[in-house]
Fold:
Amino acid sequence: MSLTAPAPATHGTPAPAGAATVELRGLRRSFGTTTALDGLDLTVRPGELLALLGPSGCGKTTALRMLAGFEHPDSGEILVDGKDVTAVPAHRRDAGMVFQSYSLFPHLNALDNVAFGLRMRRVRTAERHTRAAELLDLVGLADKGDRFPHQLSGGQQQRVALARALALRPRVLLLDEPLSALDAKVRLTLREEIRRLQQDMGITTLFITHDQEEALSMADRVAVMRAGRLEQCAAPAELYARPATAFVAEFVGTMSRIPGRLRTADATVEVLGRRLPVDGPVPAAGDGAEVDVLVRPESVQVAADPGGAARVLATSFLGATVRVTVALGDGTRAKADLPAHAATALTAGAAVTLALPDRPVLVAPRPA
Structure:
């Protein structure tokens, strides 16, 4: 699937006065010899939906569970509106959590599942049922209150879980990969619904996902994690267009590595027959060192050329665009996304030349 730079997500309404600021300061956590968090610093702004994105084992779920109060850091602090809640028990934190596995009570119907937390807080029966019914209506399940979990689809169960988390009017909403168990169509619908509800209610939200498209389409900002550390935190469009590290560049979206030669005197790189400025830090590899230039498919220009040293390996029709996979003279592969009308002559085996636009490029050391 091709990803293009998304428009930055924006709030439908300003964050309400009661929206919380969440700060994670220097969080560290180890499990035996495995380091889950290695000094994580992160701030979630009032009313913001911030997505934590990263590969399995990067520490994102550990960070979420610490904020919920289910895990405790070896060191570091968790603050909500400046108040240290690191040692506060989970049931005393003003946070609602939605799990990947729904975690509904099988012996309670949808209405009673939503009302459960209110019952634990000794809210009167009539009031909690009214509130639960309002929330079921909010998530599109007004007529499903008498259904038990086994009588609901996966998407409906997740809506009930979301309504249950919202019933206590939490100041912080925590979502732990809530859509990963759903099929693609339901996942798309529900992520749009979660985003709409979050914007309408203005709840500060931390959303955990390993799905980059999900993070880019839903979040105000995306925090990319790796090995317990924060690599970059930025708005989706900035993260995609200006990745801070090679890891972020290759983890978010599709990226090709094209061989280049570094010129440290003027911070440029020779690539595909031209010199381009290096975007960001210049690798300490020495003048003339072989490096990789990281480029998005939409930035690669491909033209049919009988004398070209590159060859088309394959094309994939993506609707308005065609993804062309090309082998360079040294065997390196690069991907290019072209308008469908511009790719008609680029059949497998065709000789081509490649070019890059005249703008700074991200450079990474060549893997050993």
